[in-house]
Amino acid sequence: xxxxxxxxxxxxxxxxxxxxxxxxxxxxxxxxxxxxxxxxxxxxxxxxxxxxxxxxxxxxxxxxxxxxxxxxxxxxxxxxxxxxxxxxxxxxxxxxxxxxxxxxxxxxxxxxxxxxxxxxxxxxxxxxxxxxxxxxxxxxxxxxxxxxxxxxxxxxxxxxxxxxxxxxxxxxxxxxxxxxxxxxxxxxxxxxxxxxxxxxxxxxxxxxxxxxxxx
Length: 215
Prior knowledge:
The chain is α/β, with parallel strands linked by helices.
């Protein structure tokens, strides 16, 4: 199977963050525990003010650690708040619209569920990465699609845009996705709900990724 040159973590916030200060401390600990490429801020439902406050509270720690800050759904708020990019779903702004709002240097990602056709359209429209999932059951959001890890292998063999695997991923089940060729593992509850805390989760993921790549 075509392993990606590297496989890194892509953290996604919980949908609700009642204590921004406390969560910012958890985030900082997680970022210091391993190789994290990006943080997607995804809180729903939320007002514009809530979204902007969340970005203000979390972005400094991420950007200080060299971690890209991606806002979910809202190119307008992503640009206003100084995020590095935006992630759009199939019912959100198009990749082309997100690019027009964010500019050529922003990072644009797109949800593609279990569809290589959607992923190819997103890549052709200028997406910097495509996301497939949910690979496993997840309580973070409602999901209808359950792709086979083979979609990651086929993508690596045929396309250049990086691919993100998402949905119910834990240190215990991530090996098949790493070996199939995921460039990034997008994780939420797998980190924030870890019984030993987010930093321990990031360390566990690092070990699991390394072991999968050696297998």
